[in-house]
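Students often ask why we bother encoding 3D structure as a string. The short answer is that it lets us treat folding as translation between two languages. Here is a chain of 421 residues written in the first language.
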Amino acid sequence: MTHTPRAYQARAVDEAVSALQQHHRVILTLPTGAGKSIVGHWIGQRAASNPLWIAPRREIVDQLQGRAVTIQSLLGGDRPEADLLIYDECHHAGVSAPAWFAVAEHYPNILGLTATPERATGEPMGDLFNHLIVGATYSELIRDGYLLEPRVVRPGEELEGLAQAPAKAWRALAGERQGFAFFGRVELAEKFAKSMNSALFRVAEVVTGETPKQERAEIMDRFKLGDVKILASVGTMTEGVDVPRAEVAMVARGCQHAGAWLQMVGRVLRPSPGKDRPLVIDLAGVSHRLGLPHEDRIYSLEGQAIRRRDAEAIQQCAECGAVYAPAPCCPECGAVPVPKPASIRVWNVALEEIGAEHLAELTPDQRGKLTWKQKMMDDDAARLAWLRKKAKHPGHAAAMHASMFGRPMPRAWWGALKRGR
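And here it is in the second language, the structure alphabet:
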């Protein structure tokens, strides 16, 4: 496979190769559509003589002419020799699972690739990786024409349900454009597809995690050819699906964490001939909390894994519902926003003080455990000594630390725990 690296790809390769030499456990994050798999291939060529891929899709590794292993076989104890383990879609790594730490101990260098460096639970990945590289930002890729800025339509606030019936919203906003509809429940996806299909034309297909592999492949082939206009997805199609011609992503479900939101809407940001602006229909209004699909974000291996840079710099048109960066008028319909007077809602509820009497409500045993835990959180040396005494090995210590104290064990302690045995 021969490609000429784009400027941001060459920069990401240089940074990752250098970081692996120093940190050995590195995550590279690139937005969906930025080519992270080929970038990972180039890194493997420069940073290792015998790289090994963990890849959710076998065809990627075949295209890149690389060796691959399944997640299940690695966790089951199969350890093919390699000087670099490349984990595509690494956000699937388990949370503080001892088996994962055993894998990490076996390989000298690990490169994680993902568009969203957080787990499905929203937790960061600092227990498995100790260095994070942002290979490119959304604004950079949109500016250079590698991604498209979407039009976003949503209700005026985040809802517990949906602003409109999905079929009604698709017909009104998307028309006959091709795209994805994401649902949280199978029955809703099936109801939507039934409403969109007619006796003569079947334009929508439902794909779930239970759809047989062969049937899913056939549906995807028809979707890529344009014979299927809408893929109604439940728990799938949120990553590893590359159909640049798709123009619409309708999210007809709630979403707790940024990772899942960005994976879904990222399906339609790639450019394609004749494609102007992709459309994102946010029926639950989750973008109020999680941000627009193309916002630049801050990523971290500790604390909040993905957070917004500026949650306030967004306006929504009261006339057409379009969401856009601050401007004198709506870029979609030209309506001029009317400023709302600032107000503070006063609830008139009683206030109560929380202090020593709160501890009095606890049993002596509960008070003792709470006080011990608070002291340990402030004393690294004491926590390390406790782990030396209690843990069987460094991986076990990392799992105990995350479970007891709610945060990853410092990476430097791995060596300290090894030396102490």
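Translate back mentally: The mean pLDDT is 85. Keep this in mind for the problem set.
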